[in-house]
Structure formats: structure tokens, C-alpha cells
């Protein structure tokens, strides 16, 4: 076989482990017939609202099956701009919206738009499992800046600034955060915005969990003074409307940057199917009822998990302020998160993501996805605590 490019060969990085080994093994066991409680990925255990699916089917039957507008339909770009304008202090225009096939495609587009080959982007650790790989896929270099569990995984602006390199062009933020559930404090966002202004940096803001805030409120850094012209907001309907498989999201940013992303879409995705865009328009124009019900579901499950842990000594929870996960500190067991997760899978048939899948700052932790009914979560967490107690003893 002819030699592959260094870019594609280097996406995962040296060592070849992309952080998903527990998930892959759990899937294999489940497919082989073993009873596995899957608490790994953030894929809902509920279906997309039937009314949204009806809108998608109606669009198909009307014949919206041809090539879509590459930048997104006028109706969807308008609906997204109206959503942003209603929920933030800085209004948005349809020309500032690029529709993409899911938040992951939006991250890639934002990084391609801000990084030239070899330039660097700051990524905060712990990070969503694809972040560093996506920076590499875009031809960039990730500067990983750790956060501390003891500080609730809140970043420090001074630590970020100290890590900047001469070729740094962007900072990638995610609040509410996956995997930690941290909601970044307003003064922290102000400090990072000040850093971006002083050092002429782009801020890429992943806000896919913006409506799933359990404590406090979500704030978009795009709203801060001088930031609308240097912020690219990535969002989608995957989490807010349980539409993960529909692959529908957007990037919001300055009009010139969005125009260039349309050119990128022409050479990559060539748009999102029209019937999915029509369903997204319907979803966005139904008010907040659907997304509030989904957010409430995860808030209740979060509370149930924290209650189930009680005063366990071998397992400590970092109570999430947002999102659909709970991070567990299992360092008292003496095991790494990776070792614990594999052993838990073998002993109890419970699959969770090791903290090491999200960088080094969450070593000795586990991420539990709240994607099963409350009774299942309570039972699984009880068994997890008992398993940890046996190991610690």
C-alpha cells in the first residue's frame, strides 16, 4: 500500500490508543450477549420527540431530498439566529450561521478556519475525547493546559497565558464541560476573553450543553465586550433535543469567517440533508419545552447518582454543575481510571469511561454517563461503590 499522509496517520498520536478501549470492549461483550450496563457515551436512552420525527418524515414525503444549500437553508439559519438572539445579549444574523452535520463537524470547521498548518490551539484538560485529535486532523498542534480536580476543574487564566506559544492562534473552551460537568465562572470567562483580546486569539466555544445547567447559568463568551468578532460558537441539537443521530449543528461567528466555512463545506460535507434541516427548524420553533424536559431528566439523574454515592470513601463525586455526566474520583482505590474501568467491566458488567480518556488531569477518575433510567443508575452506582470498597480494602 502507498504511504499515508502524516496528518491522517498522526490523528490518534503515538501509542495508537484513542481513549475508547473500554467502550469498544463493552460493545463487543454486549454484542456477544453479555448483560452490560452501558454508561460510556453521551447518547440518550430516549428517542427524539415524535413531533420532530413527524416533521422530518413530512419533509421527506414533500420531496426535500435533493442537494441542500451548503451553508444551510435560509429557514434554519434564521431559526438559529433567532434562538441565539433571544438567549444571549449579542444578537445574531443568519449570515453569521454555518449549518454543519453535528457539533464534531463544527469543531473541525472552526479549527480549520483558525489554524494554519503547524499552529497551536490551547485545549483544557480534561477535554472531550476528540479535541486533541481534531486539532491534529485540522493540521494544528494542541497545547494541553491542565485543570485541577481540587478546584472543581475550573481553569486558570494565568496558567493558560503561561502556556501560550508564539504560534498559538486559538483557545478551545467547553462550558458546561464534558467530561467534568464544570460550568466556568463569569470572572474566568472575562479573564480568558481579556487574554484573547490582548494576544489577538480566536476563542472557539463549544456550547452543546448550554441548556443543561443544573447549578448557576450558562454564559457565552461571545457576549463579552469585543468578543463577537473573535469567537466561533459550536452548538447542535444532539444534546438539547435528543437528536444525536440526526447530525445537525451549527457554527456561529463573524460573517467573513462563516463565508469561508461555507467554502470548506463545499469541499467536504456538501451540506446537511434538507429533511433533517426542516426537522431542525421545527424543533427550534417549538419553544423550550422539549429541551427543558430533557435537561430536567438529567438533573434528576445527577441528583440520584450523588445520593447513591452517599459518604462512600473509596469513590468521591465531583458534583457536576451541568451536562449529562458525573465524574467520580476513585484514587483511594490505588488504581488508574483505565485499570478500574476494565476491572469493573469484567467483574460487574458495568461500562464507564476512564478519566484518562479525556487527558491526564482526570487520571484516577471515571466519567459516568447519565444515559440510563434512574433505577438502573442507582443499582449500577451501588455496585460500583461496593467494588471500589473491596479494592480499597
UniProtKB/TrEMBL annotation:
Family matches, as InterPro entries: Aminotransferase_I/II_large, AspAT/PAT-like, NHTrfase_class1_PyrdxlP-BS, PyrdxlP-dep_Trfase, PyrdxlP-dep_Trfase_major, PyrdxlP-dep_Trfase_small
Occurrences of domain Aminotransferase class I/classII large (ranges): 36-384
GO MF term list: L-aspartate:2-oxoglutarate aminotransferase activity; pyridoxal phosphate binding
Coiled-coil region: none
EC number: 2.6.1.-
Reactions that this protein is recorded to catalyse: L-aspartate + 2-oxoglutarate = oxaloacetate + L-glutamate
One Pfam family from the record: Aminotran_1_2
Key word Ubl conjugation present: no
Cofactor: pyridoxal 5'-phosphate
Claim: Transferase is one of the keywords in the record: yes
Source organism superkingdom: Bacteria
UniProt record, GO biological process: amino acid metabolic process
Segments passing through the bilayer: none
Alphabetic keyword roster: Aminotransferase, Pyridoxal phosphate, Transferase
Family per record: Belongs to the class-I pyridoxal-phosphate-dependent aminotransferase family.
Protein name: Aminotransferase
Organism of origin: Thermohalobaculum xanthum
Lineage, opening ranks: Bacteria, Pseudomonadati, Pseudomonadota, Alphaproteobacteria, Rhodobacterales
